[in-house]
Each structure stands twice: as structure tokens, then as C-alpha cells.
User: Which sequence fits this backbone?
DNA sequence: TAGTCTACGGATAACCGTTATCCATAGTAA
DNA sequence: TTACTATGGATAACGGTTATCCGTAGACTA
């Protein structure tokens, strides 16, 4: 896994590559996205960036996130009953582990995803293109403190 | 898998069991839910039931679905960018296969879910309670007709 | 440096599926 | 018949996200 600074450089390079401007607001957002743990929501990023740029609009946060999403650099986790969350470290589809109590989201290291995907495809004749694998439960911290 | 009629009887019994009334609208909805393939949306059920009860409100559809959901008899599949879909045949969490073209949703028969769940739990220390496993792709029909 | 052009940021209205609210009434019980 | 309550229907409200509008910062040209 690359460190935060190099991940930020990657994101910045991708924007430049497509002739998008690196405005101060975007730079600040890229740094937040590259360094964030736990998969922040747009509202969370909005709260964080207001510390540096108090006049920033929530729309700017969404615009930047969608820009990175369209470039394939950010994975959007949509929830119908909660804020969307964003994964700026690993844009490829992968399983997530969601704590039902503190709403923290982790990326587990697993090996069986490809096997399960293949089983599903063979079972149904589907051409599987992507996936969204969410596990819900309690993180170790919340198991202790409940 | 039970046939549609017995599934309907199950649903009806569950409502009676909790002293909910079996109104004509609810009976019609229960039959639709028990017999539906491909995981209908609330709007889809609404269109269907209007053939029998033209004055039915969309709110009644949602109320009945939420009733069954709270009783654990219907599984709600929420999508942040699309209508929610409802599984009235298998209320327990299980993988789904979603066609990106015709939006059909299938229930694949797979054996590796428990293994993957266990791997995730051991890897992270999470107490895994539930899951939501969606695979996206093209169904056999849409592979041919594209 | 001045002028022009365009991408961008900020503010906010609009969107849309879902939920809440209100009221009339059907069904139940006494 | 009367009173009570759950239910259905209509629609307003909700809330996260997106679209729209406008002023401007920044880049390019000469």
C-alpha cells in the first residue's frame, strides 16, 4: 500500500493528465482523500476541508469526488439509508467490513473472493463484471464497549 | 423452495399471528410478493396491484413491504442510485446477481459464502452479523442480445 | 499588461425514492 | 347502534445528491 503522500501525487497526476486544474480546494481534498482512514463520507470531508477553506461548498466536495470516481481513482460505496462513503486508497472493487455501531469501514484482506465470483458465474451463466461485497457486524472496539 | 401458494399462506399466517388485518389490498400484495420473480421494486408492485385495486396508493405498498420486512419475511435490497428491490422468497441474507442491462436480479446457489464470511471475521476480529453480497454483470440473455 | 475565454467554486434550487402526516372509513367489539 | 382502532389513500415532507446559475480566478494570446 502506498503512503499518503505518494497516493496524493498519484491523484494529482491523474487530474493533470486530463487537464483538470489543481485548485487549492482540490489539492486540499486530494490530500484528505489520500490520507483518510475508515472511508469518509462527503459530509465528513466537507467538515474537514472547512478548517482550511471555510467558504468551501459541499457541492465542490461532491464534484471532486465524482471527478475522481469517473477517473477510476475513487470507489464510491452507496448506501440507500445512509451517506455514501468513499474509498480513495483502493479504487478496485473489494470486500468491506462495516461496523453497525460506529459505522467504521475496513478493508479486509481476503483470498476467497475470486473463488466465490467464479462459483457464481459458473452457477448462473452470468458474465460477472463487478461486485459489491459488504459484511456487517461489530468491530473489536465496539464488541468490548457495548 | 416452497410454491407460491404455500409461501403466500406463510406470509398471511405471519400477519395474523401479529394481529395485523388481512385486508384485500394486503392479500393482493402478499400474493404478488409470494409469486414474483426477479425481485420487484415497490413501484413495480404498485403497477401490478393497480390492475386489481386501481385506487391503491404507493404508500400502502411501502407500508406492507416494511411490515413484512420488520417481521423478517422480506429482504430489502437498497440501492442508492435506483429503486429498492424486494425479495419475498428468501428473507435471509444471500448473494444476488444483478444484470446491469435489464436489471433482473437472481439468487445464485453458492457454497463459499460461509467460508468467505469466516475468512473475513478471522482476518479482522469482527463479529460478523450479516452481509450484502451483490455481483454485477450480464445475464445470459443480455450477453446474446447486446 | 491588457483582454478574452473557460473551467471552476459557491450558493442554492431541484431531484427523487422513501417516509411521515393527516384524515376518512372499514372493520371489530361491546 | 355506538365507539374505537387499524388501515388505506392522498400528499407533504425528508435528506442525500445533483443540477443550475453566476461571478471569478487563472490561463492563454498578442
Assistant:
Amino acid at each position: 500500500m502506498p503512503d499518503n503522500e505518494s497516493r496524493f501525487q498519484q491523484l494529482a497526476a491523474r487530474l493533470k493528465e486530463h487537464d483538470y486544474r489543481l485548485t487549492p480546494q482540490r489539492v486540499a481534498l486530494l490530500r484528505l482523500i489520500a490520507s483518510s482512514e475508515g472511508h469518509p463520507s462527503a459530509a465528513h470531508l466537507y467538515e474537514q476541508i472547512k478548517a482550511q477553506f471555510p467558504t468551501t461548498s459541499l457541492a465542490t466536495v461532491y464534484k471532486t469526488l465524482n471527478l475522481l470516481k469517473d477517473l477510476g481513482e475513487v470507489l464510491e460505496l452507496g448506501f440507500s439509508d445512509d451517506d455514501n462513503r468513499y474509498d480513495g486508497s483502493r479504487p478496485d472493487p473489494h470486500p468491506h467490513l462495516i461496523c453497525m455501531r460506529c459505522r467504521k469501514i475496513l478493508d479486509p484482506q481476503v483470498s476467497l473472493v475470486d473463488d466465490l465470483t467464479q462459483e457464481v458465474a459458473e452457477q448462473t451463466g452470468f458474465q460477472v463484471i463487478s461486485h459489491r461485497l459488504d459484511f456487517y457486524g461489530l468491530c473489536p472496539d465496539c464488541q468490548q464497549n457495548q
